[in-house]
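Q&A log
Question type: sequence-to-structure
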Amino acid sequence: MDHPYRITVLSDTHMPRKAKALPAALLADLRQSELILHAGDWSNWELYEQLSQYAPVDGVAGNVDDDRIVERLGYKKLLDIEGKRIGIVHGHDGQGRTTPIRARKAFSDVEVDCILFGHSHIPFKEWVEGVLLFNPGSATDKRRQPQYSYGRIYIQDGSLEAKHVFFDQK
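Response status: OK
Response body:
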């Protein structure tokens, strides 16, 4: 592939309670995505259907998601994408004082390259013992954060890179 495989990463959208529509900044990005991953707290299945208009979608349920999302996606998932093993968990369940610690513990028994999580609405990116822990924040419910955010992951030539995209208006 002559360009990186591009994944848009979302979490904690809480739609339609926190937003009636996806932010314009995010919509432009979705059109460029080859895959969309969501780390839970969608709130309803209609968001899955809307995102599916842009690219294939996968993800997990969070602590506020309805039964339909839980039944279809589950709470934990391990995907092999372009040779990289990516774990997805919302981060609300399990033992550990912080969401990143809970997310890491959820995959302590398997080899992963990256763990995507949400729950805290706090953007987070840190390499821990060779594993990238990545929380995209929220594109629709920033809570006490200065900006809204989502994430991008690029995979190319055996390497994985993640970055946050920050914006002011939803």
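Response note: Helices lie at 24-30, 45-51, 67-73, 99-106.
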